[in-house]
Each structure stands twice: as structure tokens, then as C-alpha cells.
Amino acid sequence: MDTQLLEGTVNAIVAPGKGILAADESTPTMGSRLSQVGAENTENNRRDFRELLFTTEGMEENVSGVILFDETLRQQSADAGTLTDNLIKKGVIPGIKVDKGAKNLANSSNEKITEGLDGLRDRLNEYFDLGARFDKWRAVITIGERIPTDYCIDANAHALARYSALSQEAGLVPIVEPEVLMTGNHSIETCYEVTKKTLNSTFTELQAQGVHLPGILLKPNMVISGLDCPTQAGPDEVAEQTIKCFTECVPSDVNGIVFLSGGQTSIEATDHLSRMNSMGPHPWELSFSYGRALQHDPLMTWNGSNENKGIAQETFLKRAKLNGLARYGNYNTDME
After folding, report:
1. How far is CA 235 from CA 221, 266, 268, 273, 335, in A?
2. Is 177 a catalytic residue?
3. Is residue 315 assigned to a domain?
4. Cβ contact 147:194 at 8 Å
5. CATH number at residue 254
6. Which residues contact 88 (CB under 8 A, 6 or more apart)?
7. pLDDT digits 0-9 by tens, 260-307
8. How many folded domains does the chain comprise?
9. pLDDT digit string (tens) for 159-168?
10. Cα separation of 289 and 233, whole Å?
11. Is residue 336 part of a domain?
């Protein structure tokens, strides 16, 4: 394990004012995104929208890394070279989604386990050769009646740790993503307890399997009310409860936390991140690894037509800059 390589990648990704664009949607998920603007789910359309984002002038000022899907890592640009080349030329680090998705957990009702460990070592070595320097594995934890079970949490934590150890062996920084979903009517207090249990189990497994904690990035949910909860916690409470939970659970050896946006709007995700950073200093860098919260606005502006490329890039650049300000705690909603 090259710990200097791993830590160098981590520090570059969570450099001041910077974070990650998550553009790793699977082909079906990308189809759902494209359908919102009436675009067909073709390889060219998937390429065109992603290339629009990757070639935005100035995006590298606030985007340090991009998580790619397997197709995208290998894909040729419309002009010349690969999409990955566009990123590397800007000094943006390519990453790759390596899990095979969440499937039904055996002997457990309404719970999921993420698959993809079989053959992972060989795939990781190939991805490193293709230019990736970090990767991502997402575990899904659902809150509902009598769930999550300890069985579900521990099984996913074990898989996250196995993936992380293999990634570090291959020279890739693992993004450890134990996501407690916003789906449901649970309170922020319930989210707090489930997130705490999930993080504790995850770090127990990471340490048991010899994972080098300064060489990982944690990609967690924020502590937040369920989408259908009748009483929604305000932004200050979300920030306070998230920091409290992470102070209790996340070792200071972890250099970077890159939050997912989950079911939040673009504005909510940016606002919550900014409020958390304004409460600092913290033992870890608090950054972003946003998908929809960075992509939704430019997707709507692009509207399936490359004639709108310029204005869509301006929209993307604005969202990137606002999240860059949130890294310092300097964002407010009046900037929208």
C-alpha cells in the first residue's frame, strides 16, 4: 500500500474550495435523467451531456474530482481523445464507481446489500491503468418499520471495508459511502441514531481490515428528516445534528468527508454544507460529492440540445462556485 499516494490524492480532492462532481449514474439512471428533458437514452446523448460538464471552462477551480461510470471512463469525446483526457488536462482527478448495485439482502425484509466484490481486484487494477485514482462503493440503509437491522448494517459495513482494502492495495482512494436514505417519514432524531449506528459499524470494520483511514474519503448522508416527515428540521438543526453525530463517530484520522446530497434540492445541499463549515474548525475537511445538486440545473438548461451548451455550462459553473463558497461557510441563499 502506497500511503503517500493515497493521502496525496485525498488532500488534492478536498483542497480548499473544492469538491467532487458525482457523474457516475448507471445507464438506466442516466436514462431517467435524460427523459426529464425529452432526450433519448443513447450513448451519444449520455456523452454529450457529460462532456458539456467536463469541458466547462473554470470548473476546475471548484471541482477537484469526478466520479465516472465504466462507460464514461472509456468513452471517446465528440472531438478527440477521451472524456477522461478532458478532466486530466484541467487537473481534475478521475474516479470510478465500482460496485454492482444494491440487491435484496438474503433473509431480510426490505433491506439491501451492495454487490460487486467478485473479481474486484482485477477490475481495480484495470481502472488504475485507465487513469482513475479514486473509486466509490455505495451501501444503502433504509429506515422503516423494524429496519434497519443490525444484520443489514453490519453486512454492508463489512463489504465497504473489503472494497476499501482492495482499493488501497491497487493505489485507489476508496470513497466509503454508507447512505442512510431520506426516504420515509422518520424524524431527524431517528436519522441521527441510525446514522450513528451505521458509522460506528463501518469504522469498526474498516479498522479491523487494516484500512488506512487517512487514505479514504467518507461520503455520508447528512442527519436530516425523512422526506415524508410532517415536521421538517430546519437548516441550522441539520448542520448541528450532523456535526454532533460525526464528532462522536468519525475518527480524526479521516482527512475528508464529502457529503452526498441525497433527496435534497440543490439549494438545500449547498446551504447545509455552508452552515456546517461555518461551525468549524473541524477535525476533517467538509466537502461535497454531489450528483443531482450539481447536475440538475445545467441538465434543465441544456434541455437535450447542444445549442444550449454555453448557457448550460454557465449554470453548472455557478453551482460549482456556490458549493466552493460553502466549503468556507461563505454561502447564503441570497446568492441564488
Report:
1. 14, 13, 8, 10, 16
2. yes
3. yes
4. no
5. 3.20.20.70
6. 94, 131
7. 999 999 999 999 999 999 999 999 999 999 999 999 999 999 999 999
8. 1
9. 999 999 999 9
10. 22
11. no
Instruction: Write down the residue that cell numbers 500500500 correspond to.
Output: 1
Residues 25, 219, 285, 309: which is the catalytic one? 219
Q: Which three cell numbers stand for residue 76?
A: 471517446
Exactly one of 25, 177, 179, 205 is catalytic; name it. Answer: 177
- 333 in a structural domain: no
Picking from 318, 223, 326, the residue whose alpha carbon sits closest to that of residue 270 is 326
Is 334 part of any domain? no
Residue 288 and residue 261: Cα distance in Å, rounded?
A: 8
Q: What is d(CA 102, CA 114) in angstroms, rounded to the nearest whole number? A: 4
Domain that holds residue 109: 3-327
d(CA 32, CA 93): 26
User: b/e per residue, 116-141, with b = 16+ CB within 10 A?
Assistant: bbeebeebbeebbeebbbbbbbbbbb
Q: How many helices (H) and strands (E) does the chain have?
A: 12, 10
Which pTM does this prediction carry? 0.96
Backbone φ/ψ region at 11: left (φ over 0), alpha (ψ -120 to 50), beta: alpha
